[in-house]
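Appendix B: complex inputs.
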Amino acid sequence: MYLLSSGFRRTLIFVLACCGALLGAEETDADRLVEGAFDYWRGTASIATVEMTIHRPDWERTMTIRAWTRGQDDSIFTLLAPPKDEGNGTLLKDGEMWMYNPKVNRVIKLPPSMMSQAWMGSDFSNNDLSKSNTLLTDYTHEIVGTEEHEGKKVYVIKSMPKPQAPVIWGMQKMKVREDYIMLREEFYDEEMRLVKFMDANTIRPVDGKLFPMVWIMRKADTTGEFTRLDYLELAFVEDLPDRLFTLSSLRNPGR
Amino acid sequence: MHFQLAWRNVWRNPRRTTVILIAVIIGVWSMIFLNSLSRGFLVDLEENGIATLTGHIQILAPRYHQDPVVDNRIEQTAEVRRLLQAELPPGSVWAARVCVNAIASNARHSSGVTLVGIEPDKEARLSFIGGAVSRGEYLAPDDDIGILVGQALLDKFETKLGNKLVLMSQDTGRQIGSRAFRIRGVFRTQLEFTEKQYVFVVLPAAQKMLKMDGAVSQYAVLLPDSEMVDTVAGRLQQAAPDDLEVWTWKELLPLVKAYLGMMDGFIFIWNLVVFVAMGFGLVNTVLMAVYERMREFGLLKALGMRPGRILQDVLIEGFYLLSLGLVIGNVLGFVSVWALAQTGIDLSAVAAGSEYFGISRVVYPVLAAKDVIMADVTVFVLGLLVSAYPALKAARFTPVEALGRT
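Resulting structure:
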């Protein structure tokens, strides 16, 4: 309808055949938007340097992180600064998560008990990182509205978890621009109260495509607490080697 | 004649006799009352322990008791089933369980819990959960997504009946197994710890989530009579396949067992302490009664009464005092225990402390025959022994000595 003309044409035929299927066709579009947004966000593979600022009412802490991602499942992060934490790393692979601490020279695989804890003290939980792509598999999506942003159309997508899906949220809402840039992601509990939300802004062209350079995650029921990600460098690449996403690479990042 | 004489002697000074009677009564009453309280705590501790998923006997996979993880599981379920059917006395209840640590989370909270996969029908007769569901409903055997949680957990998670709870735990492939459940029922127990710690799902759901392929963590057995525990456990251990371990509740709850052993000693010492206080009063009173009647004893001696008779006389007086005090004390004890048993003792005010020991919010006193008998026998025998001292004094008075005093 709005995005994919072939999809629209198929939809149209379908609508002619059966009017009641219109809703289903819309859902398909919502699915494509979400998947497109994820693909756009992660790229096929990317290398980035990110500054993460954890802000609390009485303190603030900034870390610099180097991140490699590939596809939807594999990513590896290593801390560059502050010097005290340099070398701390996180590897995400196939939905599992390992962390490395150079001071004790140990790699630990995160047990289930730690998955809902905060990642490095930020407002992101380990689950947010390791299960970000469950949005594609465990939810059904529906377009519930449209907005305008910098002259482009923005779709508001409501994502409801599938009945048996092991996800804690009652609902997620996303705002995806027509060029697949995700502007906002909201997490709701089962009473449909907002729990936390992430905003993406400062959209700039980088490495040939537009990308939001600042991400802010906030909890809904606190003020003055947030975690901000500032992309300092970002490059999209065709592919990254397998050896990058291994435990030994976690110990010796970037090699 | 002796008895009549002694009875009249006892009431020659009613005020003094009443005072000593009150001492005996309070002593006996406090023994019975406090013993029944301690016994109540103990019984409560034991029952809580056994009902809180311990049962009388458990069959466990090797190392499960040291490390209750999914790796230590019982695969040979058919054999254990056959064994239990063959060896258990009639009237026993047994059920299989999956019991591992897990993480429960919803949108706002997460916390460590013990995931218990149960066979709902059998478990209802085996542990507390059968009668504890206060809102919502108990699990149906085919309820694949239902979960029972405690009221305290529900409050802590700020959630309600019908809402979702996601459980995560390590599965047999060492991956993270997770599954969403719907809160089907809420249970209340005496211990807040239990409400916060345990969540119940049906056995197949837990097995599926942890990829256990029909294996279970444990078999729990409740016998019709707790006295049979050791013999039945011995039989099971001999017939158990391979290296499966058979544990009795005394081994599973060593602290409770230690308390039980300690409490018998404690009760005895308490009885002794009460008696020592009471005994001095008794000796003093009888001794005074004896010295008061010195001239009388001298006269009896002079008339030819033998010392043994005098001894007997005074002892019978002590016997009357003790018997009367014991009867009234016992009656008072029974009545007050009965009165207290109607309401129980509400420990809500000190719930945090009592829960630390695994004691309920409301404790009911328990009268055990052996405690009552021990209290009575202690008072009676030791009472007679101490009244022997003034009796001997009385028997030794000579007429001359008696004349010398006024």
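Residues 30 and 142 of chain A are 5 Å apart (CA to CA).
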